[in-house]
Each structure stands twice: as C-alpha cells, then as structure tokens.
Amino acid sequence: MTNIIAAILKSAGQTANQPHRKKASASPLINRIKIYANLMIVPVLLLAAWQLLSSTGLLLEVVLPSPWKVLMGLETIILNGTLAIDLRDSGIRVLIGYFWGVVIGLTLGLASGLSKFIERLVGPVVDVLRQIPLYAWIPLIILWFGIGELSKYVIIAKAVFIPVFVNTLQGIRGVSKEYIEVSQVLELHYFRLLTKVVLPSALPSIFTGLRLGAGFAWMAVVAAEMLGGLTGIGYGLLQAKDFLQSDKLIALMIVIGLVGFLVDRVLKAVESSVLHWRKGFSGEKQ
Q1: Which of 65, 138, 224, 237 is deepest in the core (most CB within 10 A)?
Q2: Where are the strands (E) in 87-223, listed by range?
Q3: pTM of this structure
Q4: Measured on CA atoms in the order 185, 187, 189, 195, is the torsion positive or negative?
Q5: How far is CA 259 from CA 125, 239, 251, in A?
Q6: Rounded to whole angstroms, how far apart are CA atoms 152 and 130?
C-alpha cells in the first residue's frame, strides 16, 4: 500500500514539474468571427436603443424616425435610382478634387521637406491658411469660380491639400538622423538617399495624410453640393431636409459614412501592402 501511495505521489510530482502545455490556438476562421462579433457589439446596442426609444414614442418620427423607417427610406432611394446617380456624381467630384489635392499637397510637401528655403516660403503661409475653416473659404471660392463644377473641385482639393501637405512635410522631417549619418558614411548619392532612405521612412506619415485627405474629401463634397447643383449626396441631403424626409436624410448620412469607411479600408489595405515591412504595436492582446 505504501509503495502504491509513493508511486502516485511521484507521478503527481512529475506532472507538476512538467511545463504547461499551451492551449491549442483557435482556427483563423473562429478568430475572424470573434473579431467581427466584437465589431458589431456597439452598433447592435445603438440600434436596439434607437428602436426602443422610437417604439416607446420618446422620439418624434419627423425628428428621428425608427431604424425600420430609415431602412425603408434607403430602399426607396435605391429602387428609384436617385442614390446611384448621387453616388456617381459625388464620386466623380471626389476623385477629381482628391487627385489635385494630393498632387499639390505631395509636391509642396516634398519640396518643403527637402528644402529649408522652400519650407520658409510655403510653410508659414500654409500654417495660416489651414487655420481658416473650410466653410469660410466657400463664399470666396464661389465668388472666384462660380457655383459650377470647378468650384466643387477647388473646395474638395483645398480640403485634401492641407492634411497631405502637413503629413508629407512631417514625414520627411521625421526621418531618423542616424539613417542620414549612415547614408553619408556609405557615400550614397542624393537620389539614392532620397529613394532608399528618406521616402521609405516618410511613407507611413504620407499614407496617413492620404487617408485623412480621403475623409476630408467626402466631407467637402457634401458641403460643396449643398451650395449648388442638382445632383450629388449633398444635394440629396438638402432636398430631404426641405421636404422633412428625415428617413431619407438619415439613410443618406449612413451611406456617406459607409462609403467613407470603405474608402479608408481600401487605402489602409494599400498601405499595409506597400509597407509590409513595417512592424508596429497593434494594441494589447485580447
């Protein structure tokens, strides 16, 4: 009996001394499902609270209709084709304005980052101009360019230019001094220094400017279309307000948010593909 007890205790001691085995990691599919489930918690809770307040009569339909009525309003503008027309026209305006805002912002940002002289010329002017809200620029832009398509492109390009310029300049100025010193030791030519050291180091900040600019472009096109024109998301919002169609109004706001979210996701995917070498902190493990 004593021998049996001793054998049991010895076996238990060996088991205790063995390192704990790691739990089998969940499959990628299960992990992805968990991520999407976590992302949906807050939206579902907000929708439930919204529906509850609407059902109890605490919210007036003309002020904030129920989620179901908003869904019906979205279905209406989809079926009658107005949403497709508005998205097409707004999308074209955003693409044109975004292109010119990025081109001008990148050009001046790179030039200012690579030349102290150009930064002294351009930097203070941009710093002053970016303090002026976009809505304060709109009357002057309309005075100069009218209420046609050109003024809309200018408004969008102006909104995009600022974040692209600032982040490009900061990205170049943020290049590590050690990298420059090593390149000098290796006697790299200026062009190789620019393409192999400066631009790769500045790319994360440049992509931040591009993503911010895309968001500002969608906000700017809504403001521009509210001032003139007969198509576009902004015009649809203004028309829904005039006719007290709050369901259509909120449906269009949701569409704007979703489109902006998708554009940001696309740019983020491009950023991850281009900057696949970058490893950064991704938050605490949950």
Answers
A1: 224
A2: none
A3: 0.78
A4: negative
A5: 33, 20, 12
A6: 18
